[in-house]
Amino acid sequence: MPALDWRPMRAHDIGGVIDVARASFPDHFEARACFEERLALFPQGCLVLAQAEAVKGYVIAYPWPKGAIPPLNSLLGQLPDARDSFYLHDLALHPDVRGQGHASPAVEQVARELRAAGGHEFALVSVNGTKGFWRSMGFDPVAASADIQRKLESYGEGAAYMIRKL
Ligand SMILES: CC(C)(COP(=O)(O)OP(=O)(O)OC[C@H]1O[C@@H](n2cnc3c(N)ncnc32)[C@H](O)[C@@H]1OP(=O)(O)O)[C@@H](O)C(=O)NCCC(=O)NCCS
Q: CB–CB of 103/71 below 8 Å?
């Protein structure tokens, strides 16, 4: 059986990434163009968990101002010039490979990339009841502004804005 390892995402991985996204975020559709754009804009923040050419998981992160949540299913156009705060847009594993310890290496590997790019912290929106998981990865929920709170409502019950130092 070929090894299952995290490696940089490439353009030909996008189809497999979308399959994992559809299985992981059934209520939050994002178009193929969004995945392609994130990879084009900030490839250092995009990794896949691959077994030979099969994609079993992915992580996407990019520079984004602290305290702001990027719109879902939208093209960003361009990224901010600042490289101190980052946003972890998605971490998802195919259901077959969950619970096997693959999540933490992805978080640490992407954290190293973001640190190398000049980052001091990264944030995310916890969904799918993953607050405890993200706490175990070093993220803490932060008090959300009224604007963030409004946006969180569209992410479903229990969504939380969380931050971790890099
Ligand atoms: C979230 C996700 C990536 C986690 O991957 P996973 O393989 O299930 O995670 P693991 O089982 O390796 O857990 C990693 C660690 O977090 C802990 N953990 C997992 N879920 C937890 C929870 N709900 N509460 C507290 N700790 C949790 C595990 O105990 C483990 O700790 P350990 O390393 O000390 O043993 C995976 O479940 C997934 O893809 N879910 C669907 C997509 C999703 O919701 N992504 C997050 C969106 S914000």
A: no
- Measuring CA to CA, how many Å separate 151 from each of 13, 30, 107, 159? 30, 16, 24, 10
Count of domains for the chain? 1
Q: Amino acid identity of 83?
A: R
Q: Check the CA dihedral 161-99-53-47 and report its sign.
A: positive
Q: Which domain holds residue 71?
A: 4-165
Please report, for the domain that includes residue 57, its CATH number: 3.40.630.30
pLDDT in tens, 114-161: 999 999 999 999 999 999 999 999 999 998 889 899 899 888 889 999
Cβ–ligand 1 distance for 101 under 6 Å, the answer yes
Per the confidence metrics, is the pTM higher than 0.90? yes
Q: How far is the CA of 124 from the centre of ligand 1 (A)?
A: 14
**How many whole angstroms from 81 Cα to the centroid of ligand 1?**
32
